[in-house]
Design brief:
- It holds the Pfam family Response_reg.
- GO terms for molecular function: phosphorelay response regulator activity; transcription cis-regulatory region binding; transferase activity.
- It is an enzyme of class 2 (transferase).
- Its EC number is 2.7.-.-.
- The protein contains five helices and five strands.
- With about 130 residues, it is α/β, with parallel strands linked by helices.
- The chain has one domain: Response regulator (Rossmann fold, 3-Layer(aba) Sandwich), CATH 3.40.50.
- It has a five-stranded parallel sheet with strand order 2-1-3-4-5, sandwiched between helices.
- The protein is globular, with a radius of gyration of 13 Å.
């Protein structure tokens, strides 16, 4: 399989740039956006295998963006991020097609395990 393409979407600039660097060092192909609006053209042009998406963002929240990308390409996998551990939003995200979720502050080892699960799922799909 080609390098796993990951799109990070989070409105916290320092968080998303740092996470992007850390994932790139682990040989993932990573791009990022600081809003769902900014992420939309990247979604089309980059065609990520995985989107790591914050639930709470201005303009268009993560759940709205999740619904939109799942309509466009249901095969795109999504891991939701939340700083709040808000069960209601996490449940809704999972119902809308998110594969996993992780609570901030993230544990990079836990995130890598979840990313590798996505890679395995994609491999099995062919």
């Amino acid at each position: 399989m080609e390098k796993l393409k990951i799109l990070l979407v989070d409105d916290e600039v320092d968080f998303v740039t740092t996470l992007s660097e850390r994932l790139s060092m682990r040989e993932y192909d990573v791009k990022f956006a600081t809003s769902s609006i900014e992420a939309m053209p990247l979604f089309y042009s980059y065609s990520p295998h995985l989107i790591i998406l914050d639930i709470r963002m201005p303009e268009m929240n993560g759940i709205e963006f999740l619904k939109l990308i799942k309509k466009i390409n249901p095969a795109t996998e999504v891991i939701m991020l939340t700083a709040y551990g808000d069960v209601k939003y996490v449940e809704e995200a999972m119902k809308e097609g998110a594969l996993e979720y992780i609570i901030k502050p993230i544990d990079i080892k836990e995130l890598i395990i979840k990313i590798e699960r996505v890679r395995e799922k994609i491999k099995q799909r062919g």
